Amino acid sequence: MMKKISLIIAFGFSSLLLSGVCCFAQQISPNQMADLDATLSAKLDSCINTLQLDTLQGKIVALYSENYEVRARAIQGLVEECTAFYQPKFPKVNFDLQIMILNQDDWNNTYLEEDGSDYGMPTAFFRINKLFIPADKEGVNKLFGVNENTNPEVISPFDCVALHELGHIFLKRYNGTHTQKKWADEFLASYFAICFFQQHKNYPGLPQIDETGYHPKYKTLADFERLYSNVGAPNYGWYQGKFQELGKRLYPKFKVELIRKFIDNYSATGKKLEPLVLLKQIAPETMNEWLEEMK
Questions:
Q1: Cα(86)–Cα(83) distance, rounded to whole angstroms?
Q2: Which residues pair with 61 in a beta bridge?
Q3: Among 43, 71, 124, 187, which residue's Cβ finds the most Cβ atoms within 10 Å?
């Protein structure tokens, strides 16, 4: 188990950029958020068109900075394997996203860092249907203070964060599943990745942390909804770890069916139950135990 709490924050804070707005967004109205989202997405798309990127064709197209073909093939393979896992389970979904594997300069030229996504941090924008991955593993080392020195073709836990981000795209863009709860969106994105990694043990899975000695200031779901990233980086990482724990407890009984239950619940004909109500209905004992730990 990895020792640095920052290891799990990678996919925690990358998710803040999913909707295209920074962490102050919870203080503005939904309409203002949507406007910011659309503006940033359009800006990103325009910037991407100016980059000189190579193209790696496949079931999922990957665009990559010069000299990073090996790295691009590794990331493309991971994402394609995940989409192949989900395609027969959700045959109406067309996984038509693009993966952007960018070096530092190309990343900067998209203004991703200007809008809060530091180089080394996988992130996704569901409006433009793109997943952004750092091409250079040194970006991970610099950002999180680790020694990620494996070869370009080796998939690391940080690379696996891409599937958490893909989970956001899958739920929001392809299935219109908007829970209106930040914690539920983060839990479901990790659960999407967990379902794949439970069946594909050849990958390391999402980053883990050793919580020994760490005492979070904030623990409740209400605090997470109220503060989101403002709980602070270590505390945000702790929350992400708890969402992973819940996913791993629920997986043996529900597997991918849990995702289907959420999609159905938020469909046009669904009951649109609150996420916590839905989970308590289908797994009361597990949820009660988990919620006790969140006090």
A1: 5
A2: 98
A3: 124
Is pLDDT of 39 > 80? no
What is the distance between the alpha carbons of residues 41 and 48, in angstroms, rounded to a whole number? 11
Given a contact cutoff of 8 angstroms between Cβ atoms, the answer to whether 17 and 11 are in contact is: no
The residue among 117, 103, 150 whose CA lies nearest residue 12 is 117
- Asked whether the beta carbons of 44 and 110 are under 8 A apart, the reply is yes
CB–CB of 112/124 below 8 Å? Answer: no
Backbone angles phi, psi at 131, to 5 degrees: -115, 125
What length is written for the chain?
295
Contact status, residue 62 vs residue 24, Cβ threshold 8 Å: no
Cβ-contact 216, 238 below 8 angstroms: yes
Site of tokens 């390391």: 204
User: Do the beta carbons of residue 262 and residue 191 sit within 8 Å?
Assistant: no
- The rounded Cα 154 to chain-centroid distance in angstroms is 20
Q: In what order do the strands lie in the sheet with 98-102?
A: 54-56, 61-64, 98-102, 130-134, 123-125
What is the DSSP track for 122-174? Answer: -EEETTTTEEEEES-THHHHHHHT------TTSPPHHHHHHHHHHHHHIIIII
pTM of the model: 0.88
Question: What is the C-alpha to C-alpha distance for residues 207 and 11, in angstroms, rounded to an integer?
Answer: 9
- Tens-digit pLDDT profile for residues 260-275: 999 999 999 999 999 9
Residue 242's contacts (CB-CB under 8 Å, 6 or more residues apart) are 290, 293, 294
